[in-house]
Amino acid sequence: MRNAEERVNFKNHFFKLGQGRIIPKDHPDFWIQLWIRPTCSDDIYELFTAQDIRTVRDHNIVNFLLFIRILTERIIQLSQYDLLTTSDLKQLLNCIRFLTKLLPFLFELSNYLNDIEIDLFWNDKFDPLEYLNTLSQNEDDDIQPKRTVDPSQINNSLAVKLIQSLVDLLFIRGFTIESSTVSANSNKLKHLILWEPGIGHTSKYNKPNLIIECNRLEVLKLLTTLCTNSLYTASLPRLIGTGSKFLTILVATTPRVELLTLVCSLTNLVCRSSRISASENALVNSDSIEFTEARHLYLTYAFQLLVLMIVYPLPKKEEIIMLTEGSLISKKPYNMARLYMGNIHKDNELLFLINSLLNILRMNDAETYTFVKAGNQPSIWATETIMLIWELLQCNKHFRELIGKKFISELMVLLVYYISNFYSVAEHKDLVSVCAYLLLYLSSESEILQDLYFPISSSLYDSFPQHFKLPTHPFTTRDFIVSQICNLLINSIARTSYLGTNKQVPDLVLKALVEILYNLIPPVSDQTCKVHNDISQRLNNPNVRGGLSYATSNLIIMLLSRFLSRTFILDKPFNSSLVALLIRAIAITIVKHPIPSRMLLYAILKNETVFDDLRISIGSLKGVCFNGNHLEKIDNRPPPPPQILQEPVVQQLSPSPTATPPVNPTLSISPEVVHPQIQPVPAPLIRQLSPQNNEELPVAPSSESESIELSLRPKPPIGMSESAREKMRKSSPITKTWGGNEGLRIIISIIIPYVKSTLKSMPIEENLLVVQRIEAIDFAGLIDIQRGKAISMEYLPETPFEPLRFSWGYLSLGWYMSLLYHRIYKTNERVRAHVSIHNNRVINNISASVGKFASGWISLLKTTIIEPSRQEVEESEWVKNSLTIVNHWENTKIKLLKFDVQSTESFFTSSMNRLGSAMMSGQSAPGSVHDMTTTLIRKFSDFKVRNNSSPQLSINPTSQPTGDDQSYPVRPRIRNSVTSLYSLNNLNRTRSGSISRDIGVNRTRSNTFQ
C-alpha cells in the first residue's frame, strides 16, 4: 500500500470481521477488498499482529472461519482459470498470504482437530448459522463424542480440493512455470514440467527467474503451513498416531504424475543448490541481498517440504480409513512420495543424488565446498540433508548399496566431524543429535560397512582440516572414526579438571557415541589378505582383516581409564552401562577375533592395571543398587574402606599430549617409542570422595522425559536390560547386576593370564616380535577349554555379533519429526542469519580492498553507469514485495516446542555497528578515498540492522532440540508498520489538526471494535 492511511483503512476493514454480526458469504463488496488492497507481503504479515487476529477470532469465530473458507475457495477458483491476468495473480498471491497468516491461529484452537477441522475443511458446505447452533449445543453438553469425517463428503471436501489446487498452482504457466519453456501453440495453463534438470530430465541449468521462484515460494510456504498443524500437538505419540490430514492427502492421494513431478522438481532443486559453480547453484546474487534471501527461502521451504513428505509416516488405521471409504483411493494407502524416492534405481541418477547430498554436507556457511573448516558453521541445510540421506538408506535399496560400496567412509567421517565440531554449540543441537543417531544406525548395518576395514583413502584424509587429523596416519577408516570418538569423549570428560575448557557432551549424544563404539570395535573384514610386517614400523603395522591398530587400541583403553572412576560411574545413572558396553566390546573383540586383535591384546597387557582398577571401582559399589533405571542407596550398608575410594589410575595419567595409560609393571616388555594418539588433555583433579552414606546420587528425571530418552536407546545386550536386573534379588548391588561383569572377568581371569603365561617362556624381544608372538598363540584351544564354563555363548567365535540397533517407535519417530518441525518454525530467522553472515563477509572484503582502488573506480563509475532494465526493476520490486521478516507461526500457542524469550545482540549487528563506527569515525572530504569507501559499503550493505528479540525453542517435554542462543539480524522494513489498535488511534491523532483532533479520534473509534 502506498501510505499509512491506506493501511489504517485496510486494517479497520479487517476488524469488521470481529463485529457482532455475521457477514454473509455472498457479500462480495466486503470480501473482495481483503485480497485486492494489499500490494506486498508485509501488508498482510506485518500489518496484522497476533493480538489483532485473536481479537477478531475470539469476538466472532464464525466470521473468522468463514473468511478462511472464502479465501480457500477463491484460491481453488483461481487455480482453475484458463488464463490468469495480472489482477488475478495479485488476488491469488494475497489470498495465499492471508491464508498462510491465519492458519496457525486456527490450528492453535483446542477444539480444532475434533470439531472445527471437520466442519470447515471436510464438509461440502459451511453454514454459519448451523455452526453457531453447534457451538451453543456443545456448550450445554459436558462430554462431546469424537467426530469423524463423513465419507460421502470427502471427495468434494474443501481440504482435498485445496491440496490439489496448490499442487496444480506449482505448475501454472506464467505463474510458477516460465512461459518460454512451454510450447507457443499450447492453450493449457497447467504444464507438468520439471523445475530443474536432474532426475527424470537432463539439460543445462538456466538462470533462475526470481519472479517465478517467489511465486513458488508463496505456494510452498502455504503447503508447508497446512502440513504443520502438528506443532500444536503436545504429545509425541499423538503426533505420529494422528498425523496431519492435509499431509496425508498430499502424499497418499495426489495423482501419480503430479506427485512424481513435484517430488522430482523439489529433489532437483535441492541438488542444484549443491553445485560447486556459483553460476550453476545460483545461491548468491551480487545485485541485491534481497535476491539472495529470496533464493535461500525458496530452497529452504522446498527442501523442508520434500523431507517432510518423505519422512511422514501415515497415521493409524482409523485416521486414514476415510481415504478408501471416500473413494479417494481404491487400494491400501501408501506414502507415494516415499515410494517414488525408493524406486530411483538408475546409476547416473543415484550418483547425481548422492554426490549432491554429500556436497551440501561438505559446504560451509561461506558456501565453499572444501571440508568444513574450524570456526565455520555447517551448511544451512545440513540437518535436512542428513534426514533425507537417512530416509533414502531405509527406503531405497539401490541407494543403500551404492552408499556402502563407494561413499560409506566419507559419509561416516562427515557425521563424526559434525558431532565433534558442533556438539557444544546450542544452535546445532538438532544437527548433532541427528548425526549421532544416523551414525549409530550405520554402525549396526554390517553389510554396508566393509569399506571401513580397508585403508582410508589418501584423498579423503588429505581433505580434512589439520585439526581433524590424527597425530599418526590411521590405517583404516574404522581406526579413524573410533579414534576421533575416543578423543572427543576423553577431552569432554577432562573438562571436570581445573584446566578443562571443553563443554560436556550432551547425555543423548554421549550414550549414542559409546553405543557406536560398541558396534565398531568388534567387527573385522570378511576378506582375508596377507599383511606384511615391516620391523622398522614397529607397532605401526597393519593387522589382518582390518583389525584395530595399536594407536586406536591405546585410545580405547585411555577412554576406559577415564570411565572407570567411582565418581564417573555414580555421576549419572547410565554411566555404569556405558562402562559395561565398552568393556564388553573389548572382551567380544579379543575372544571372537584374537588374531586381527593382536594390537588390542598387546595394549591390554601393557595396561593391565586399568582393568584391575575398574574391578576395584565396581567392587566399591556394594552400597548402591538400581531401582528401575535410577540409582539408589542400599540401607544399612557400611561405607567401604577408604583406600577403595581412591582413584589411582587418574593419578598415574600424564597431562602431556603423548599421555598413555599406565604400563603394567608385571609384564616385562621392552620400551618403545611413544605414539601420541590424543589431543592435549588437562590433568584431572584428584577429588576426595566423601563417605558413601553422604554421597548424592543423581536425581531421577521426569517420567515423560525419561520415556522419550529411553525410546532413543537401542535394545541393550543380553543381561544389561532393566528386565534382566528385575530377575535378580531386590536391591541387589551394582557389583552383582553390572552388565560388564562377565566381560571384565574374561579379560582379567582368562585372557591376560593365558597370554602372560605363554609369553613367559619366550625371550624378551622387540615389541613387534612380541605382537607377532601374541598372534601365534593358540586361542582356539583356550576357548574350547573354557567353552560353556567361563565364557558364555555371546562371546564365542561361532556366535554372530549382535550390534546395538536404533529402533523406530511412536516416541522416537515423534522426537525425530519434532526436530524437522523445529527447523520449519525457525526458517525465516535461519535464512536471514545465514544470508547476513555471507553479506558481512562481502562487506568486510570490500572495506579491506576497495580503498586501494577507489580512486581508480571513481572515473570508471562516472563513465560506466548503467541504468537497470525494465525487467530488472520489475524483478526487484516483485522480490521486495514477496519478502517479509515476520514468522507467521510466532506468538501462536505452539505445544510441541517450548519458548525461552531472550534478547541479545546478534553477532552481525555488533559487527556492522563496529564496521560503521570505524568507517564514520574520521572526517573526510567529499570525493576522497575514505568517503568513496564509506559510500560503497553503504551501497553493498543494502539494508539496516536493528536489535531484535527472538524466541528460543526446544522440544517439549524434553530438552531436545534447543533453539538458537542468539538473535538474528533482520531485513529492513520497507514500509511503515501499524501493528495495533493503539497505534492506529495514535497515528490518527497525529495526522489530525488541533481543532479536529477529537473528531478524528472518534471517527477512528467508530470504525473499530473494542
Automatic annotation (TrEMBL):
InterPro entries in the cross-refs: Hid-1/Ecm30
Q: Quote the biased-composition stretches of kind Low complexity, using this chain's numbering.
A: 702-711
Q: Where is this region: Disordered?
A: 694-735, 948-971
Taxonomically, the superkingdom here is: Eukaryota
Q: Which GO terms describe its cellular component?
A: Golgi medial cisterna; Golgi trans cisterna; membrane
Identify the Pfam families for this entry. Hid1
List the biased-composition ranges (Polar residues): 948-965
Can you say what this protein is called?
Protein HID1
Q: Which organism is it from?
A: [Candida] subhashii
